[in-house]
What does this fold into?
Amino acid sequence: MNEFNNIESLDKQKIFDVIASQPNQLRKNYADEMREDITAKDGAKVHNIIFAGMGGSALAGSIAKNWLFNKITLPFESVRGATLPGYADENTLVFISSYSGNTAETISAFNDAIAMKCQIVCITAGGKLIELADKHSVPVLKLPIVSQPRLSVFAGLKALACSLEDMGFVGNNDLRAELEDAADYLDTVKMSWTTDMEVSNLAKEIALKLEGSEVYIYSGPMLGSASYKWKIDINENSKQLAHSNVFSELNHNEMQGWLYPENKKIRSIILHSEMDSDDVKKRIKATCEVLKDHGFSPDKIKAEGSNQIQQLLYSILLGDFVSAYLGIINGIDPTPVEIVEAFKAQIA
It folds into this structure.
């Protein structure tokens, strides 16, 4: 695959090494940090949970919602924005997530949480959020230093999972063990996606198909956070337009938009699983048939793994590799996000 001969010269920040190292983020145990400040006894006072963050820093909450939908014992809401919902109060546990610790919207959400007397846990690698947490005696779960927030998602998920488990909000489920097993599984499957794998490399094959296209990533609810992570990755790593949506919502509106796309080069990816509901499987099949009638053939990518979290993280890690390879095809360093950083500087 000659398209990938220039990886070494373009990948100045070694994104492929960082991507491949992500499963190890699932092995850190956040128990000690958590138990110093919030115990299961304190957790008994919690009536609802909010996870507040933006961009890649919000993804741990989205993944947890997919994974723990039938396990978590309290209402759990993800907030991507600067304000918390009006119901938040002293019985609300708020996770404030910002990798940099300087995200404007997330700092605003932290201040909201203080004003509303919420119970707060911060998930961050540093920045102003650490200073605010120290000022208000708020516990902090410290993330490892990586080149971009989107590459710390597995660490954020592990921190959140440890917290929910230690506070008794997931019944008798051993989330630590599930994530550590997933890490072992991912360390095995990633070997076929690395840069030195020249043949039968699924990630490279998918990237080649997506070159020059606007990409739509679809999935059922079970893999919804994975499809959204693909969108983020293709936007940021590949510097290419991408969108995501889930079945069955997309069948009620978005699929109509495929009728007249003659002037655009677009491709669709469908992430699917044998664990999808029968209704989702039926909708995926029917959607593929409808799109084929209009000249489009979605690429179906099956999630692998022995349980839901393994399939979710398999799909996410594959998307990380795909998007980085697509960045190389586009002739750019996949890591920097100059436009996003310039925008943040402008509004700071």
Summary: The domain at 37-169 is CATH 3.40.50.10490 (Rossmann fold).
